[in-house]
Amino acid sequence: MANFIVTYDLNGPLPTHKQMDEHLAKIGVTRGRILETVWYVKYPGTAVQLREYVKAILGKEDQLIVVRGTSAAWTNLLVKDQSLKTAWETD
Length: 91
Fold this sequence. Notes:
It is built from three helices and four strands. It is α+β, with helices and mostly antiparallel strands. The protein has a single domain (about 1-90), classed as Alpha-Beta Plaits (2-Layer Sandwich). A four-stranded antiparallel β-sheet has the order 2-3-1-4, sandwiched between helices. It is globular and about 35 Å long.
């Protein structure tokens, strides 16, 4: 599985942030909100496949980027540093 960063701007009335949280929960993989609208996702597919999954709930005015990461450094995130470190480093 690969490490991805998913970030989005919700610019329309739907989905709400709660609906987006629920949509990401349904994917059934390790994930965590690391900043307000930035998520870490450990996903078995490609960036395109993950984009298409997330995009399915978005409105035409919303924005999204999915980035596959091979290394990272961080500080002061919403998720505990050790849990993200553990998730990032495990295959």
